Structures are given as C-alpha cells and as structure tokens.
UniProtKB/TrEMBL annotation:
Alphabetical list of InterPro entries matching this protein: Ser/Thr_Dehydratase, Thr_synthase-like, TrpB-like_PALP, TrpB-like_PALP_sf
Name by which UniProt lists this protein: Threonine synthase
UniProt record, GO biological process: isoleucine biosynthetic process; L-serine catabolic process; L-threonine catabolic process; threonine biosynthetic process
EC supergroup of this enzyme: lyase
KW Lyase (keyword) present: yes
Family, per entry: Belongs to the threonine synthase family.
One annotated GO molecular function: threonine deaminase activity
Source organism: Kibdelosporangium aridum
Keywords: Lyase, Pyridoxal phosphate
Keyword Lyase: yes
Ranges for domain Tryptophan synthase beta chain-like PALP: 86-386
Cofactor(s) demanded: pyridoxal 5'-phosphate
EC number of the protein: 4.2.3.1
Domain of life according to the entry: Bacteria
Length: 418
C-alpha cells in the first residue's frame, strides 16, 4: 500500500487507478465502493496500463493470473493463497458446427475451472482485490455457481464465508457449496430477494466482501479473462462472433471490454466482432428489452430450469443492450425444452456436458443461425460456462440406459437390435 501525503489512501491494485461512474463519469480513488455518490450509478475500474507484451503473458502462469497486468489485483497477487482458474480449453467444435450449419465454431469450455463454472474467474479476482481493500470475510448472494466458487475460494484462502442462496436451488449446487464448510444460508425467496438481502447485510458488515455487491467493480473485471484467453488461444486475434449467456449481464459486458482492451494495447488487431446474448425465455428481461428496442430493462419474475441465469432484475442489463447494439449483435431467448435439447446436442456432438446455462447458449446460437442473425460464414465462439453434473435434474427425465439386461451377450445384441 502506498500513501501520498495530502492525498486519499490508494490501494495497490496493480494497473487499476480509480473507480469511475458508468453513468456520469465521476471518478473516485480505488476504494471498497460500488455505487456513485453523485448519481448512484455503478462504478467501474479505470486503469493505467504499462507496456504489456504477448511474450510476457505467454510466459506467465497457466491460469488467469497470466493476465494480472490487466486486472485490478495487487502486484504481489501470487503470494497469497487463491484459486487458479482459467486457461480452460477452447475446443474446435466441428461436429457441432456441422449440426448447426456453420463454418467455423469454437466452444470455450469453462466446465474445467476449479468449481466447474466461469464464476471461479470473477471470485478469484474479487478475493485478491478484497484482501487488499481490507475485507476479512468473503460473501455472496448466488444463483448457484457463485456459491460454489465463493465458498471454495474462501476455504482456500482461510477466510470465513457467508453464502446466501434461494432455498429452491438444485440439490447438487447446495451440496457442492456446503462441503466447503462456510456459512451457507438458504433463504426462502428467489434470487432477487436474496440479492436485496445481501445489499442490506453489506451495509451493516463493513468487513464482509460480497463479491458481486460491494466489491462488484473488481469482481466483474474477472470476466475479461474469458476474452483474453479466447484471443490468445486463437493465436492473438479476435473472433468474429461470440455468444454469451446473460444473468446479471456482467460477463457479456466484460467480454466486450476485454476484447477492446486487447485492441487498445496492441495485443491484437482491432478487427470487428459481434456480441450475441442468450437467455432462457422464462427469465428473459434483457432479450425482451432488446426485441422491443428499449434501452431500459423491465424486471421479471424468473421461471426457468436455467437457474444459474435466473436474475429477474439484471444489474448490467442496459449496458448489455449498449454492447449488443454497438457491435451489431443480437439477443435471443429459448424455451426450457430447447435448453435441454441444447445440452444434449453439445454432449452428442462434442462430448461436453454442460449445465442448463450452456444449454441456453447452444440453443440460442441455433435459433440465431436459423433466423439469420448469426452469420454462418463467420468464425463463432460459444461460451459454455458451467458443468452439467450440477444440473442433472434438467435431463433426468430425458436420458438413461437404452435397456437393462441380464449379463449375457445375446441380451446386449438384442437390446442393440442385432
Ligand atoms: C452466473 C453465470 C452466468 C452469467 O453471469 P453474469 O455475469 O451474471 O451475466 C453464466 N453462466 C453461468 C453458468 C453462471 O453461473
Ligand atoms: Zn455517477
């Protein structure tokens, strides 16, 4: 930590220099703040980047910390225990491409993170920043994956955690959070109720870092690592199209921010790209706003099997609309039945088992292709953000053994129709 006489305390968060309001542009020094004191708009991290070279990144750790010079984390980030998410595989998905009728398709497979979803990225960055900002407890309201990631990262760091979830969450997501032995509290209410409760508690407990509430500006930056990895894995260039699932919308806006930063820093050529958003129809407030041509998002009451995306009042909704409109993308939504079909299609063609959120992405991509919005000739990346093992209930009624037979070759042949 460096202190300048007469100036406010500044925290060492690497290249991060200030927080700036996304609405009115008001700037404040780095602090544990998330809302603008002038207009209540959301705050975003501003940087002063040094020279960043591809070779230095390539020589870095095989996880998100290779991009530390692009993130709001302390210069000595490696000296503290944290999780090591990222550098998940980018899979050339030729069989899925053929099934969807597109020329060149990639799947960014984030099931490979420590707790099997993209949330490990944002939590790791939030934890690194929260430590520097003086917090001592890691907390969150969660639709499931964030609960896993927060409880696991706190356990790894030796911090206490307080995790709030809707009591109706999938059993697998409850157990895979509870096992880390933090304080897991199931709340009778939906995610938006849980989120309100978290905001209230964050105001009362000054040493609790609610990763997606009071340290949200830092947390959200973690999603940029998806953009960095995709570009690096493509050989330091941007894809032409990317399909991103939307819950709060933070991920989608930060993937765009990541691509822009790479261009500005000269790490990739500034080629045009289009950002597409994916939602489940049972919780599609951003898709509805996009289709109606609105620039504000009307909250909804979620009702979908894609519970990890079930945020009825998405904080970053309007900024998602900005990104999609600016990049000439689109937003589409799909039924729960299509979500299950999406899960099965990805499994059948690429051997990747995703959760419902990934089903939303695949099914939405299919619909965007069928409706001519996604260009089948352009190179496309689908963000597969979570693991199917956490949402087994979604496919339970649809898949199972073809037959149950006695242990005889004849019986197997018969079952196979020979
Ligand atoms: C949280 C989540 C998302 C979306 O994240 P936002 O940044 O809130 O839009 C996507 N996929 C999965 C699996 C998630 O858990
Ligand atoms: Zn403001």
């Amino acid at each position: 930590m460096t202190t300048t006489v007469g100036a406010p305390t500044t925290f060492d968060l690497g290249p991060a220099q200030a927080l700036s309001c996304r609405e009115c542009g008001h700037q404040i020094p780095l602090a544990p703040e998330f809302a603008c004191a002038e207009c209540f708009g959301p705050l975003e991290v501003k940087y002063s980047f040094g020279e960043i070279r591809r070779e230095d990144i390539e020589a870095g750790p095989k996880n998100i910390w290779r991009y530390r010079d692009l993130l709001p984390v302390p210069s000595d980030v490696d000296t503290y225990p944290n999780t090591e998410p990222g550098l998940t595989r980018l899979v050339k998905a030729d069989r899925l491409a053929a099934a969807l009728g597109v020329k060149s398709l990639w799947v960014k497979d984030d099931t490979g993170n420590p707790t099997h979803s993209f949330k490990d990225r944002v939590v790791a960055v939030a934890l690194a920043a929260a430590r520097q900002l003086g917090f001592r407890v890691l907390a969150c309201p969660s639709t499931g994956n964030l609960a896993n990631a927060t409880a696991a990262a706190a356990a790894r760091a030796g911090w206490e955690s307080v995790v709030l979830i809707p009591s109706s969450l999938e059993k697998a997501k409850i157990l895979t959070t509870a096992v880390y032995d933090g304080a897991l509290i199931a709340v009778d209410g939906n995610y938006d109720d849980v989120n309100r409760l978290a905001t209230e508690l964050a105001a009362e407990h000054e040493d609790w870092a609610f990763v997606n509430v009071n340290v949200r500006p830092y947390y959200a930056e973690g999603s940029k690592t998806l953009a960095f990895e995709i570009a690096e894995q493509l050989g330091w260039r941007l894809p032409q199209q990317v399909v991103v699932p939307i819950a709060s919308g933070a991920q989608l806006t930060k993937v765009d921010k990541g691509f822009r930063e790479l261009g500005t820093l000269g790490l990739v050529e500034e080629t045009p790209y289009r950002v597409f958003g994916a939602q489940a129809t049972g919780c599609s407030p951003v898709s509805a706003a996009y289709k109606a041509g609105h620039d504000v998002v009307q909250p909804v009451r979620p009702d979908t099997i894609a519970r990890s995306l079930a945020i009825g009042a998405p904080a970053d909704g309007p900024y998602v609309l900005d990104v999609v409109n600016r990049t000439n993308g689109a937003i589409e939504d799909v039924s729960d039945e299509e979500v299950v079909e999406g899960i099965r299609l990805l499994a059948r063609t690429e051997g990747i088992f995703t959760e419902t959120a990934g089903g939303v992405t695949v099914a939405t991509a299919k619909k965007l292709i069928e409706t001519g919005k996604l260009d089948p000739e352009a190179e496309t990346v689908l963000l597969i953000t979570g693991d199917g093992l956490k949402t087994l209930d979604a496919i339970e009624a649809k898949v199972g053994p073809r037959a149950t037979v006695p242990p005889s070759a004849d019986a197997v042949h018969q079952a196979l129709g020979f």
